[in-house]
Amino acid sequence: MTITKLDAARRQLNSAIELFFGDGDSLAIQTLAHASFKLLYDLYGKWRTDGYLARLNELLTPVGWKRLSEVPNFLKHADKDHDAVLADHSAEAVVSTIGIACVLYARLGLEMTPEMQAFDDWAKVMNPDLFEVPRDPDEDLEQAYRESLRVLRDSPWNVQLMTGKATLAMYRDNPHYLRERAERRAKVWRAVR
């Protein structure tokens, strides 16, 4: 069975997300997520010319790239820094790597897997201010929604991960829901363009 670079990136990213929601080893998650990110980043540069990588590079800046690559470089290089130590690491440190990899995958025009969609939705719930989620016109409903997000964000890490794991289980058990959702999004995008 042959495995393409895209197959490898998808499998690595799905595994990283599965480990992430399962509160797995943060270094294993980091390794898988970064390997997937790098493959998708390189493939995007070969397959798309929409300027997105330039905007991503601008957003990350040299400091951002250094932070994004610091732990992966620590984990794979020992020729020049054999006595280096990693002060600390947690799964929370991998969130941006997984998130960017999911975005690259989707921007390649591919249907996100249940793992990717669950992570994307979880990230939006955990960081609503980073995403352009429109306000509900019903102010009472909007306030209740924002309060529920605050309660979740203030919950312990294991509770936050449980919501992602439950979302992933729901998406796996109901694949038709993701297809219908993707079709609705496609209609909206076609109407906007």
Distance between the ends: 40 Å
Strand content: under 5%
How much is the radius of gyration in Å? 18 Å
Low-confidence stretches: none
Query: Could you tell me the mean pLDDT?
Result: 87
**Biggest sheet character:** none
User: Helix tally?
Assistant: 8
**Which sequence of SSEs, written as H and E, runs from N to C?**
HHHHHHHH
Q: Can you give the helix content as a percent range?
A: over 70%
Q: What structural class is derived from the secondary structure elements?
A: mainly alpha
Q: How many domains in all?
A: 1
Give an account of the 3D structure:
This protein has 193 residues and is an all-alpha fold. It has one domain. It is built from 8 helices and no strands. Helix 2 packs parallel to helix 4 and helix 4 crosses helix 5. The longest helix has 25 residues. The protein is globular and about 60 Å long.
SSE layout and pairings?
Elements: H1 5-21, H2 26-47, H3 52-76, H4 95-107, H5 114-126, H6 139-153, H7 157-173, H8 175-192
Helix pairs in contact: 1-2, 1-4, 2-3, 2-4, 4-5, 5-7
Give a concise summary:
With 193 residues, the chain is mainly alpha-helical.
Entry keywords:
0% strand; 193 residues; globular; mainly alpha
